[in-house]
């Protein structure tokens, strides 16, 4: 191109202006027909591009890059000022839609114009712009639009958009596509950032949203809480949809935050505490759906669930306490029994119900789980009447497990046990429950009155809750019985050799696993004594290191008694059997004689005689008759005794108290001291408060008063396990 | 006690300077031992006279022997604490007892000055006033009071004894209203609370002194965080109740 003609600036510019710029302007002004994308054919375009290229590649001083870049800008500016601005100027007065439609139209045109101008002068972008670090052609075009149009008109357009949005909020139909395209314009004006959108549109929008919903709040607050919540939820959904439809997605969280502030946070307590439709009322009327909505709405707020959880806790505590009061009324009315299944059943029912509420309505949120727990801890540890809830619960278990009690199917038994164990977890005095439970378990096991599988199941459940230590004794009891079963067969073979006229079997129980029983040294019949001796020899030979102790109060016997011409089988306990034997063959004996012969104290002998002479089956006649055994009474077999049944079970009151609180206290003392020593052994030196809290943390089966722990610390100081530090009286040292 | 020991060393040094002879020193020590034996025997004899039917252990002084010691020194054993301070200084290790070994050792090391018989001991009596004891010395002495007054194998003191002993030991160190109210409190526990405070443990005894030192203002007492024995907690409760009335 060395000999090519140099193009002078004006000549070249005029060519470009005529062929490209003027034509483009005309097309735009004449409202280009839709779908017409190729405004310039390739040939036309190449020509213009070449001219521009030539003008930019000519050697200095004929290089017109700078001039062309400048004129490109001026062209756009001029067009915007001459045509676009005047077209928009009077629109705001004609209404939002008209303004926005015009702007949308002009913006589209500008984008087309910008696109083509960039194409024509694209060579500038490649070298001149890069070399001088100037805005690219399209950037320059956008900036121009921003300065000359957007900045001038934005206050009006924002207002127009807001008014359309408010129209839509009021239920009118608006042109969403139009708004969406204007929103895109705002987004574009940030030049790659969202600044323009945020400052010019979003902030005013948030402000107007706040105002709108503040008004709505005042309007809705007179509704019932459920109605309010439905509206609030609807509003949140609408706003969320709106953002999705035509706003920038970054606005969603901000707008929703405004709503949460205005329609939720500000009135939360008012809504929750509405007398007839607040949280309490919803709980009272089991309004599951509304409660769930309440949860969904207020979980949006930071700490929004806290007041709800607190209401739930109070409510559950109250309904629980109502049951306690109902029990109180029953106790006041009649004599208290350790068996009050209706109380336990009611509590299980309540627990089921509110566990479901927490799970379903409150999505199992931890705050509500805690509320349920706190409420039940309070209820379960409120004892009224003579018997503690621990005892009532254990007795309820007894009913379920005892054959012939509640008569439940296996699945029902398991379900009931599951539920009682749930309640059990709320009990503070778990050790008390264990002690009572063990007593009742012992009774069931010794009388073979329950299914081994069910017993094992329950123990396994307790073990899951409280660990091995908690159930080791109970498991020991079961295993005693299992081992006993095998041994019995062996022993039966042994005793058969002796030709004893008795069926005799022994149950060997491990001391410590079982409750402690009284063991009077009663004089047995010769046959019994002989059997026992055989067993003792056999057992001693097998287990040389074990010591046998006979517990006569727990034995059973079946004796055959002939009264007149009729013979009965009497099912009695060992003590009854011994008394019957003493009165065999129609002997008459005084109380003192009996006591001496049998070597029994009054506390054993009197209840035994009472059961035989004053109970339902009077197999013994007492002289004089009466309902109380006196030391001067005489006894003889009742020859006139009759019964419809051939087999008669003669019941007798238990000689052992059901359990002892003292035992539990002792165990606690040991447990607390053990914990203190364990902790101090590891830590050597510890501050009082720290020791106290660690001890309380270690004791999971009961919750001792700090003062009780302190007494144990003092006892350990006296026994020289610990000392008070010489420097600080609030610090203990471990003495190894 | 440190002071006493220092003095005895000094005396030994002087002797060395004057005679510079080991045999002299030995003979002095022998003479001292003779006097000590004599004095101890006096006490044993005196005690035996008081309780003629009892068999006397010649290796130790029992309470009668100690009363005898008080008599020799012109001290009223019932009310004068100096006898207990003296026993504490002599290092009596068994309750209600002073062994011959302890007595002899105290004479030898100068804790008990006996050069001129009982009169030498009498001379030191004014120094035994408990007012002279420093904080730690007093604390040690205070514990000694408990230990010495124990009966044989009992680990605790009878409450009546404590109520009698406390004012004697603490009268100049603890405000009298605190002392009186505490003794009243102990007495008022009679029959209450399953009689758990009929006997006082060493820990309770020792803690009361620390408590008096550390907690002058009962209003600032925080029961929930305190490590004081429950007895002290209950004393504070008792005082609060009294205030309310």
TrEMBL record, chain A:
The keyword Mitochondrion does not apply. GO terms for molecular function: ubiquitin protein ligase binding. PROSITE patterns: CULLIN_1, CULLIN_2. GO terms for biological process: ubiquitin-dependent protein catabolic process. SMART domains: CULLIN, Cullin_Nedd8. GO terms for cellular component: cullin-RING ubiquitin ligase complex. Coiled coil: none annotated. InterPro entries: Cullin, Cullin-like_AB, Cullin_CS, Cullin_homology, Cullin_homology_sf, Cullin_N, Cullin_neddylation_domain, Cullin_repeat-like_dom_sf. It holds the Pfam family Cullin_AB. Residues 388-613 form the Cullin family profile domain. Belongs to the cullin family. This is Cullin 1. It comes from Fistulifera solaris (Oleaginous diatom).
From TrEMBL, chain B:
Residues 31-240 form the DCUN1 domain. InterPro entries: DCN-prot, DCN1-like_PONY, PONY_dom. Transmembrane segments: none annotated. Residues 1-12 have a biased composition (Basic residues). One of its GO terms (molecular function) is cullin family protein binding. GO terms for cellular component: ubiquitin ligase complex. One of its GO terms (biological process) is protein neddylation. Pfam families: Cullin_binding. Coiled coil: none annotated. It comes from the Eukaryota. Residues 1-31 are annotated as: Disordered. Neddylation of cullins play an essential role in the regulation of SCF-type complexes activity. This is Defective in cullin neddylation protein. It comes from Fistulifera solaris (Oleaginous diatom).
């Amino acid at each position: 191109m060395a000999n090519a003609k140099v193009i002078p600036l004006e000549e070249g510019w005029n060519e470009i202006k005529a062929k490209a710029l003027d034509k483009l302007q005309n097309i735009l002004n004449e409202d280009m027909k839709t779908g017409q994308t190729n405004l310039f054919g390739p040939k036309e375009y190449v020509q213009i591009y070449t001219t521009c290229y030539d003008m930019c590649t000519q050697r200095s001083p004929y290089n017109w890059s700078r001039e062309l870049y400048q004129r490109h800008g001026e062209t756009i500016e001029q067009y915007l000022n001459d045509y676009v601005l005047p077209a928009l100027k009077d629109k705001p007065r004609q209404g939002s839609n008209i303004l926005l439609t015009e702007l949308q139209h002009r913006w589209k045109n500008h984008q087309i114009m910008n696109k083509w101008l960039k194409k024509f002068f694209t060579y500038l972008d490649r070298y001149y712009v890069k070399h001088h670090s100037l805005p690219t052609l399209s950037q320059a075009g956008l900036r121009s639009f921003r300065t000359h149009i957007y900045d001038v008109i934005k206050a009006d357009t924002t207002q127009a958009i807001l008014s359309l949005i408010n129209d839509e909020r009021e239920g009118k139909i608006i042109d969403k596509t139009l708004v969406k395209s204007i929103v895109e314009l705002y987004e574009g004006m940030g030049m790659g950032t969202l600044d323009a959108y945020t400052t010019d549109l979003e902030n005013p929008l948030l402000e107007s949203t706040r105002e709108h919903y503040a008004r709505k709040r005042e309007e809705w607050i007179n509704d019932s809480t459920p109605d309010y919540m439905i509206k609030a939820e609807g509003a949140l959904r609408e706003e969320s949809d709106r953002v999705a439809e035509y706003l920038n997605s970054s606005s969603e969280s901000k707008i929703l935050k405004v709503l949460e502030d205005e329609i939720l946070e500000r009135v939360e307590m008012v809504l929750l505490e509405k007398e007839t439709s607040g949280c309490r009322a919803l709980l009272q009327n089991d309004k599951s759906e509304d409660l769930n909505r309440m949860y969904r709405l207020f979980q949006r707020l930071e700490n929004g669930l806290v007041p709800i959880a607190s209401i739930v806790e109070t409510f559950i505590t109250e309904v629980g306490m109502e049951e306690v009061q109902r029990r109180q009324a029953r106790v006041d009315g009649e004599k208290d029994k350790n068996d009050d299944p209706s109380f336990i059943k009611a509590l299980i029912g309540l627990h089921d119900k509110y566990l479901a509420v927490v799970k379903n309505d409150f999505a199992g949120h931890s705050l509500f789980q805690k509320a349920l727990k706190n409420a039940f801890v309070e209820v379960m540890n409120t004892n009224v009447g003579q018997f503690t809830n621990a005892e009532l619960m254990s007795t309820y278990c007894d009913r379920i497990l005892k054959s012939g009690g509640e008569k439940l199917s296996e699945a029902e038994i398991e379900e009931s046990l599951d539920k009682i164990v749930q309640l059990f977890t709320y009990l503070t005095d778990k050790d008390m429950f264990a002690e009572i439970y063990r007593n009742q378990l012992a009774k069931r096991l010794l009388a073979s009155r329950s299914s081994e599988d069910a017993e094992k199941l329950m123990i396994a459940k307790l073990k899951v809750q409280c660990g091995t230590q908690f159930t080791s004794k109970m498991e020991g009891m079961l295993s005693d019985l299992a081992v006993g079963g095998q041994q019995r067969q062996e022993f039966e073979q042994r005793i058969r050799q002796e030709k004893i006229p008795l069926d005799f079997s022994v149950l060997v129980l491990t001391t410590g696993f079982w409750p402690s029983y009284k063991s009077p040294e009663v004089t047995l019949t010769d046959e019994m004594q002989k059997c026992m001796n055989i067993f003792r020899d056999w057992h001693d030979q097998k287990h040389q290191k074990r010591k046998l102790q006979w517990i006569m109060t727990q034995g059973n016997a079946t004796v055959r008694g002939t009264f007149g011409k009729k013979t009965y089988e009497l099912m009695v306990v060992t003590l009854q059997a011994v008394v019957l034997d003493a009165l065999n063959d129609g002997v008459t004996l005084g109380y003192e004689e009996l006591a001496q012969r049998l070597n029994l104290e009054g506390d054993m002998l009197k209840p035994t005689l009472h059961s035989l002479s004053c109970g339902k089956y009077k197999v013994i006649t007492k002289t004089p008759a009466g309902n109380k055994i006196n030391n001067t009474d005489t006894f003889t077999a009742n020859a006139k005794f009759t019964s419809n049944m051939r087999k008669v079970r003669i019941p007798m009151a238990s000689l052992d108290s059901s359990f002892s609180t003292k035992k539990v206290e002792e165990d606690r003392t040991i447990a607390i001291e053990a914990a203190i020593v364990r902790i101090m052994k590891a830590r050597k030196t510890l501050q009082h408060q720290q020791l106290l809290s660690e001890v309380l943390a270690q004791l999971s089966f009961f919750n001792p008063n700090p003062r009780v722990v302190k007494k144990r610390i003092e006892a350990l100081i006296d026994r020289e396990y610990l000392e008070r530090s010489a420097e600080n009286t609030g610090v203990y040292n471990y003495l190894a | 006690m440190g002071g006493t020991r220092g003095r005895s060393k000094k005396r030994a040094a002087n002797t060395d300077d004057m005679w510079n002879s080991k045999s002299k020193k030995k003979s002095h020590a022998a003479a001292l031992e003779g006097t000590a034996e004599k004095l101890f025997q006096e006490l044993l004899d005196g005690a035996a006279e008081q309780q003629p039917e009892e068999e006397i252990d010649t290796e130790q002084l029992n309470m009668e022997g100690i009363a005898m010691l008080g008599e020799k020194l012109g001290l009223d054993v019932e009310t004068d604490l100096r006898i207990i301070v003296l026993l504490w200084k002599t290092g009596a290790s068994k309750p209600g007892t002073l062994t011959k070994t302890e007595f002899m050792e105290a004479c030898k090391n100068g804790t008990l000055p006996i050069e001129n018989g009982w009169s030498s001991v009498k001379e030191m009596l004014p120094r035994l006033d408990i007012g002279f004891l420093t904080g730690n010395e007093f604390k040690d002495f205070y514990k000694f009071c408990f230990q010495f007054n124990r009966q044989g194998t009992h680990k605790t003191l009878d409450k009546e004894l404590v109520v009698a002993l406390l004012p004697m030991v603490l009268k100049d160190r603890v405000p009298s209203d605190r002392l009186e109210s505490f003794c009243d409190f102990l007495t008022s526990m009679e029959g209450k609370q399953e009689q758990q405070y009929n006997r006082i443990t060493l820990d309770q005894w020792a803690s009361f002194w620390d408590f008096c030192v550390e907690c002058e203002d009962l209003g600032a007492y925080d029961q929930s965080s305190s490590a004081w024995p429950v007895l002290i907690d209950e004393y504070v409760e008792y005082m609060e109740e009294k205030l309310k009335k």
